[in-house]
## 1
Amino acid sequence: MDGIVAIWKETGMTSHDCVFKIRKILRMKKVGHTGTLDPEVDGVLPICLGRATKIAEYITDSGKSYRAQVSLGTSTTTEDAHGEIVDSKKITHDLSKDKLKEVLNQLTGKIQQTPPMYSAVKVNGKRLYEYARQGVEVERPTRVVDIHKITLDEDSILLDNGVITFTIDIDCGKGTYIRTLAVMIGELLGYPAHMSKLTRTKSALFTSGDCITLAQLEERALNPDAVREVLHPMETGLSQLKKYLISDTVEKRVKNGSVMPTPPDWSGKQNEPVVLYNRDRAVAIYHLHPSKEGLIKPIKVLWID
């Protein structure tokens, strides 16, 4: 069984929990997720099955969309609602929509973020959350992330008991921490802040409308045809990458992993993956040869008959 099943991950489980359960439900070993979602976060989690596990990283590296609730007035150790409060400042007046939109515009585009201590980023071979649990503070690497768009739900702004909450929709690139974005919004507004709720609404081309729950998958598991009805082809997970069409003759060379001359109409830049298709089927992923000019080299061969 090869393809991608879009799971709506419920709160209370990790991405790895989903993989473990699907392995049991479908009785197959080759199952992989496409990007970690914290246990407290629900939403879209594409799961790759069989041959499609080869392309999981390309879904992981693609754009994501989130719906987040931001709380102004308190900050926490984890930058979300599950950490201990480390700072607070009572808010006594309403926040104008214009001021908030101005701040959101400042955080749109390429911005620098420092990952939270409670995150899976590795420093010296150890994940930051492991240091945090031991009470050890380490220097964290600042990195550039891409925020494509932030949209304010104007009707969501609420002042209650000295805390302002509001909801935003974010389209962003890989490696973005929405928790940290919430903190940055607070800093620009002059208040401690944290992310109080988060849902992933899109991953690559997969949206909530494409998803089923683990319980729904389990209901279908007794009938392989019923499972295949909800499987998306591997090509869906590669649709954000550039394409190049090849012939039956070239396909035979590609399946053998051959290094080939760069076609005159090749559009891929250095280190940019391009998917080679024969008709509608993705056969392999190639890029410009890193050391030999005029050649293209396989990154992954997806089909070997």
Note: The helical segments are 15-26, 56-60, 97-106, 128-133, 178-189, 214-220, 224-228, 248-255.
## 2
Amino acid sequence: MPESLDATPPTVLIIGAGLGGLMLAAILESTNISYHILERATELRCLGSAIALYGDILPVFEQLGIYKELESVSLSQIEMGIYDAKLNCLGSMYTRDHKIVCGYDILVSTRPKLYEILRKKVPTHKISMGKRVLRIREHGGRVTAYCSDNTEYECNILVGADGAYSAVRQSMYKQLEGDGNLPLGDKDASSVCYITLVGVCSPPNPELYPQLSENICTDFRLVIGDNSDSCYLVTAPDNQISWGLQVQLPGNKARDQQFRSSEWGSESVDAVLDQFQGFPCAFGGTMKDIFDATPKDLISNVFLEEKVYQTWYHGRSVLIGDGAVTAMKDAVVLANCIYNMSDISNKNIETAFASYYRQRYAEAQTRFKSSTIYSKIMYGH
């Protein structure tokens, strides 16, 4: 028998308590739609570096009543400076007119602080930890998620918010492929192009970094090395510095890394850190000073991959995209589509999912193309 969450199973089961899953839960909470989150980690914490939020997502924070709190842990971004390995300025990207165009400044915060703001919107009893989903099965107008601890959870709608390699996607695609309905493009492996290491530090001597004295806007600096590896630094409130290292993988190494890692984690970072020890820090000194001020368990790595999947839903299961801002925007549109359903019949669910797909797929393709251009800037191409 399925493990009981309340008197009855939840209407919406969210797999994954990342930013996308929490955003969806926060909206459903505000609209009194029944939901529950399954998270495979045993504790809730968020790794990562800086995150920039634009006018296309900030109104949602205002509607949820958490915009002021977000503002209090953010700085405005008005410019990004790009430098070479000798710290000669190659150019700048200005965003100071963003508020004139859309009514909001670009807010830059650390990912952990943003995560904490959203997490507080979701009651603790609506998140089950240590629940690694192995597979899903649809039957009789319901969906069941089977976990590694032998528990089962039933729902009317199942949302995969746990990344590109989620069990939800794998189960969905396996069924579609067995029926001969999975597009060829979705069968192909995605391309691993970059390794990124990220972290947030609080320098013991913040006076050594005059950039931290500016409490109105963030200082965003990108340094491109001679071999096209790059490093960025972003100032954040409370004398914090968010940083990230990017290493481009040659074709053969990209293939070797294909299945080694596809999610945030704090392992296997030493080699990349050693590679950047003497890299010039755009705020002064070398990156070693920044690394030494960053707790090792808060340094994480991710293999960045390039792919836009064509299949986002099947039956009563639907997927939220990877990537922080993209996932949150997916969550907003999906929540609206669920809210507008008149009942939970198969027909209405399919109509809601199709509407979600129409609204989000075109933008996903556009963002993919713009991300490719941005990557060429980030890697000195």
Note: The longest strand covers residues 191-201.
## 3
Amino acid sequence: MIAFLTGRVAARGAGTAVIDVGGVGMTVQCTPSALSRLRVGETGTVATSLVVREESLTLFGFADDEEKHMFEQVQTASGVGPRLALAMVSVHSPAGLRHAVATEDTAALTRVPGIGKKGAQRIVLELAGKLEGPILTDGTLPGTAEPAPAPDDAWRGKVVSGLVNLGWSAKDAETAASAVAAEAEDTADVAVLLRSALRRLSRA
């Protein structure tokens, strides 16, 4: 089990990063919040979960252990594989997912690309009482640090890349990114802007 990686960030693309660990380039499929903390040429750390398949070994990267733990927990629901689990923790924070399941908020879950109404109902039923961690009244976790903001307009490319990686077309991704541009004046937090863009796409 590879619990985390620390090394020089060699590259960063649409939903992925390559981290040089001791001269070996490790490709990691990352959440937007994890990507927002990585800078090419600088040393970065991501919590990781290794998914082993007969034909592949895939590393998934997260901003912290809580995000990683939620990724692993939601996969205990039938029909939720690694890709859908990654989309879930990309659209919602761990606290947000706990809150959605605890309050049976299926509408929140259907904002995740790949989850329909029936799928959301099944996920709520199967994960009820299984997602660990306290929930505050505002849906946040005590002591949870805010993701580091992305500089300048770097958020736009990351939001577009994140949306494309989650299954949206490049055209739709660009339109959604433009729609949240006003919000970027108040925050350059890629995870926040990505979730806002996804909500707009889900309503379209």
Note: The chain has nine helices and five strands.
## 4
Amino acid sequence: MTTPPMVSIRDFRLVRQTRGGTLLVLDDVSFDVADREFVAIVGPSGCGKTTLLKSIDGLIPRTSGEIAVNGTVVDRPGPDRGFVFQMDSLFPWRTVLANIRLGLEARSGDRATKNRTARDLAALVGLQGFEDHYPHQLSGGMRQRVNVARALAVDPQVLLMDEPFSSLDAQTREVLQEELLRIWSERSKTVIFVTHQIDEAAYLADRVIVLSARPGRVRASIPIELPRPRTLELKRTPEFIAIVDRIWQEIELNDSGRAARDADETQEARVNHA
């Protein structure tokens, strides 16, 4: 018996209205994400990676097609999905504990239980002892740890992450990559992770989805057949470098195709103007 996917995207299409008319952002996007799978999405700037992630969360409505999470069609945000934004988006007047507890406050249950859950999550992300600190007292990496803990607090089935480490320095970024893999392993969540960093995608994911230049379409689905658990030393192996090169080749084909398309559009505009 085949296990149904945790996330299913079928013939997804998204059109936006702009001052200049309509803009086709994503077109004919179809792929599945298995339960507890870690999938990274990469592609050229402007190809719709973040837009697709927000559509999975229910923040941006589709034009056509379908997105389903655990068999339920997505038409709005829900507690089965947790979203980690690019910026930490913490409330500055709340402590670490209060920020983590935020998603629990709308749920039934006593305050002591919610505080205990928040403290457990603070420990999970390596912030034990910082529960009473405010965001301005934390480093960028620590704030993102709070952000991840807050998303996990509602116990979502799917964790959606939009370039969560992009604003961090290289050393902190690598530390948090390792921490994320540890948390993912312990919590057994399905993760969809958007990034511009190809080595980050290859290091974290079970599979990398490459989107084409706008309109974003699935150009490739590349399995990352590297053993787990993974350590940072893996990034220096020939096997890892070969996978990164393969993903880069897909990105470069995207860029060359986009350049050709832009040249054609420019030439067409000149002809029409003449």
Note: Confidence is low (pLDDT under 50) at residues 259-274.
